[in-house]
Amino acid sequence: MRLSPDEHVTADALEHGKRFLVRDAAWASLAGSLQGGVVLVGFALALGAGPMQIGLLAAIPLMAQALQLPAIALVERLQQRRKIAVVAVTAARVLILSMALLPWVADHANRLHLLIAMQFCISALGSVCACALNSWLHQLLPRDGLGAFFAKRLFWSTSIACVGTLAAGQLIDRWPFEPALYAYSASFAAAALAGFMSSWALARVPEPRMVSHPHGTVFSRLGQPLTDANFRNFLVFMASWNVASNFAGPFLTVYLMKHLGLSLGTVTTLWVASQVANALTLYLWGRLSDRLSNKAILSVALPAWFTCVLALVFVAEPQPHRFTLPMLYLIHVVMGTASGGIGLANGNIGLKLAPQGQGTAYLAAISLVGSLVGGTAPLLAGAVAEWLQHSQLSLAFHWASAYAEGDVSVFTLTHWEFLFAISAALGLYVLHRLSKVAEGHDISERVVVQQFALEAMRSVNHLSTVGGMLGNLFTFGRLFDRRLYSRSAWRDQPGRPT
User: Fold this and answer.
1) Same domain as 319, residue 175
2) Does 212 score more than 50 pLDDT?
3) Which end of the chain is flanked by fewer CB atoms within 10 Å, N or C?
4) Torsion-angle region of residue 440: left (phi > 0), alpha (psi -120 to 50) or beta?
5) Closest alpha carbon to 236 in 66, 440, 430, 442
């Protein structure tokens, strides 16, 4: 298998490589769904993990991003990004395969420690791969049409991840043999096999020869993004987003299983509902990012995401009821829709703001800043969760009259719910930092919502004859265009205010 750079990358080779990038993302997402996320948290809980251990497992991928610094030196020295990425990510998949042996370890006390150590090694290798891959794709892919391409890539990876997560949840819940931990062995082994297929696809993506920078050290080039005022604002925004999203996000599965008593199979269906919404709207977000701006998308998607985080505080008030599960599905669907726009827009802004030929340093700066501040969020949240484990904050009204007296509880914060409230409050600062980032001309949130609705209607029209009939009955697109034309004509009339 040839892994050295290509002398020339033709247009046909580029299109061929894009197809394999989509396959790589799909196989890698399948591996991640069978080994990470909900499955990993469930496995850790089965091994007896507490809030601090869950926080550490969530912090490790972020903290491992600090290895981007030596990875930059490795990439710059060898200038063989495909070889570095494929070797590193394949080694990580070998470690995933070794995780399948953990349930068989006789020393039960050390199984959790071994899990944490393996996760650190897997994340470290993934960080090295990401550094090489980011620089590789930054040079390989043309800037025009990035939104549509990454939307397609994310769509397939998300769809495959949904299938994998559902399969893992049902496998673990319905495992017929004892002990039940052996179900995780089967899931991890399948994840490793999917990961090897991802490595095979990635090795077939063409790599142009790297643009060399003979002047300056790695450290001096890494400092270049900090001298760019607009990119520096973007780094602060990304740091604040990493803190806010990772403060409560890693503990959502624990909250659903421990506090609400849901099974792992039910939790995986909630996750899949979120990812299905993510996949179905990624194409719409991608078209909007190319037509409008990524910042405009974030100004709509971020408030929606943080509103859902805050809604988790009230979903089981005053106690779990028959509407709790439907409300959780609704929250997960909205969060999935919003997270699709957030992930796509964040990635696109980073690629657009990074100068051509300097992608390694600029994109690594995003990962490094996010790891330094975002990696502390789950650890801090785990400490807060342990400290507030037996605490409660209630808001109630006291009613007293000549006939009766009593308290009416409005809401109560307990244990994990404190983390959701804090995360939602941090979202206000994230929105403030977003306003400091410049990306072309500003577009209002209303325009984004209107265009999103129009794109959704067009998609329904293409997919369904019923949708086409509705489109003929309710021609929102033509009404919206005519309204814009009328406003423009009115303003152009002599004597009208501008």
Assistant:
1) yes
2) yes
3) C
4) left
5) 430
